[in-house]
Amino acid sequence: MEINKNQDNTDFMKETIKKRPLNKRKLMQRTLITAAMAVIFGLVACFTFLLLEPVISKKLYPEEEPDKVVFVEETEENEILPEDMIADDSQMQPEPTEAPALEDEQIAQVLSEMELGVEDYISLLDSVGEIAWKVSQSIVTVVGVTADVGWLDNEHESEGAVSGVVVADNGRELLILANTKSIDEADSLKVAFADGEEYEASIKKKDNNTGLAVLFIPKSKINSDTLEMAQAVTLGTSGGNLAGNPIIALGRPVGTEGSLCYGNITSTGNTIRLPDSNYKYMTTDIYGSSSASGVLVNLQGQVIGIIDMSYNSSDMKNLVSAIGISELKRLVESLSNDKNIPYFGIYGVDVTQEANEELGVPFGAYITEIDMDSPAMDAGIQSGDVITKLNETEINNYQELVKELLIEEPERELAIELMRQGPDGYTEMKLEAVLGLKQE
Asked: What CATH number corresponds to the domain at position 188?
């Protein structure tokens, strides 16, 4: 077979595939884009987690709501309930025969046999001291810390202190009642217990009218010994005529921490008139500090007053005085439950039996004054009106009106029935009002 010599010989040709040269600029761009996307993805993931984490946690581990704080309204010591005045014939006891009158000599003999000695006096003081010690375990010192800047621009802290008292335990927090007027500008609050332990505290709710505030400390931050020691006190009653009753002043009655004084109530006839509230003001024969704070305690170990010297007259500025606890219970209850306090803007008094019989003033809440631009003024209520009904509740006196207002919520509409005096006597009127919010 003859080979074609003219055929091309291609054995010497080889194909080589070259790699594309590395473009460093494009590689850098892609790297930066990838890194930026990773950062954005991470930020979105973090933001989403922060938003959803509380919701998911509540679903998986639902947090128990704090227990509602409720204070029992006790019957006044000298008050007789209507049901106590009703008795069946079977319950009626025969009248006891009159005891023979004692002669003066017999009375003197009985008194001489009852004469107390020094040992009896010491025993009596020990008994009262034991009551005071038990309540003092629930008395705390509230310290307000304020950061100040001196004239050389150097910062320093100043502290003010008042006494407070443990009033409730809602299951999650320990609640402390204190008058914070003197530490109102504090940047932070610390609470020192009777065992020396200190904890940071926060205000749950405050009433600007009285200056009273309820502070709280999470129970998880308080050691078990302090929790066991600082039990909530029992709130007694300041109703009735307590003049002459022995009392114990605890907290800072003489201006120093942990001071204690014994004395008697001298008067309960004064009244503190504030918007939407009236408070009994009790005076004592205890000479203390003009900046005293703390509580008054009866011999049953019950708190019957919160010391407040700001309402004393100039001639008795050092006599320890207090706001009665009976009128404060509803307010303290609302503050403890973090409830917004409604504002109506009225001042008033009860209608006495004499005013009803002699002047024909109907029973109810007699309005003596109204705040300017208040919900009461907007509703058309005037001084001299007598409110007899609030929504579906009959109002027989001013204190009943105050209680009903505290139950309501801000922005709630009220249906009011009142009696207004005119040329022909009192006529009935019906008004509507919308409650405001009392500023803290």
From this structure: 2.40.10.10
